[in-house]
Each structure stands twice: as C-alpha cells, then as structure tokens.
Request: fold
Amino acid sequence: MIQQPLVSIALCTYNGAPYLRQQLDTLVGQTYSNIELIVVDDCSTDGTVTILQEYASNHPQLKLHHNLSNLGYVKNFEKAISLTQGELIALADQDDIWDTDKIRLMVEGIADNIMLYHDSEFTDEQEQPLNKKVTDVRNFYAGNDSRVFLFENCVSGHSILFKRELVSYLTGFNKVIIHDWWLAYIACNVGSIGYLPQALVQYRQHQKASTNILRQDRGQAKRKTRDWRKLRTSITLPANLPLIRIITITSLSRSYLG
Reply:
C-alpha cells in the first residue's frame, strides 16, 4: 500500500472563540487521514486558547503553539508554515467551515502543480449562504505566468495546498502584501498553479474577519500601485529564484510603476 503523504494544516488563531469549534470540527474530521494540524495562537485574550487546549487533548494530531508577543495575521502564518513537517501544506483560517473531503480532493488534484486552490462559498455570520462564490467576484487563473498577480490576487489563503518545495523560495512574508498573494506570486515564478472548481470552504463574512472580499472596494488601481511601490522597495527576492524570473519581475515593476 502506498503511504499517503503527510499534509500539514497551518491554522492561525487570534480571539476566534465564537466560530472556532465549528472550524476545528471540520479540520479534525477530514476524511484524509495522514494530517498534522499546526495551530499558532497570537496572544488571544478570549476563550480561544481554552478551546484549543481541549481539542489538543482529544486529538493528538493537533500541535498547539503560543506566541510570546502578537505577530499579526501575516507574520503568524509565516511562523505556522515554518513549524510544519508535511510534504504538502494547507492554510486554514479560524472562522471558516471546511468540506470534510477538502484535503483528500486537493491531494488527488495537485498533480504536477506546485500549488492548488479551489472555489469557496460565501456565508454570513450564521452560516447562511449569500448565494455567491469567490469565482463570482474574482477571475480564477491556472498556469505559470506570474504577471497575472502583479496587481490582482484570486487565491484565498484558506483555499490553497502547496508542496514543501515552495517553502525554500520564501524569503519571509512582508506586511505590505498579504501572504496568500505573495505565495501565489512566487508559486507562478517557480512552477504552476491549478484550481478545483468545487466550493470546498464556507467562507464566513463578518465584521471582525481578517479578510472580507465582499466588503472590499476593488476599483483602487492607485492603491494597488502604491502597495507594489512599497513592496518593490521592501522585499528581498529569493536568491534561488530563476534568473530570468528576477529580470522579468524587475523590468515589469519598473515598466508599470516607474
């Protein structure tokens, strides 16, 4: 029998008690069995840690880590990824609800891609469907052209599964740009990404969510350009990125941003 590859699910938490149990139930209830669940709590002050300790005591695959100081959403995911051991890595938010077949379907579907992502269904705070999916507000992309991600991101962090080899190209997440955007951009520079059309996550939209796509104002070319100006001056491109890609990134940023 062929051994299933270990899949690491990196879950970051911060004051997420109201919705956390529902999410944890779907994570520990995955039909794919070879999973480790890496949870990093970012100094929660509500009942989050108590809930996590309860689940950790009942589910040995859950490994709980506590930050000594608050790192923030993006840097906490960077830390969580660094703690994973799996051949494949998935990211999870504290307030969504996963389809219990999500990991199995993604492992079966990733093939030669370095990253795979999927569609998601929007719900409100009470899990009521909003009759809209991410593909209704974002144009999904599959391939290896990183230029697609220069000014727009269609990849939500909760939807991705990526191979461990991608980690070697990450120079550290930068707060100027959200981590899922950066992951997708680098993935297209060193391999290809694919997507599944199934909606495998109920993507909860509420006022305290770290990201809320339906609430975002998407007509801000100036703001996006400003963010990329900041990014260009604050990031260090991976030293092991193919030379042609570094040249392309540099020339494109100069062309678009001046």
Observations:
- The radius of gyration is 18 Å.
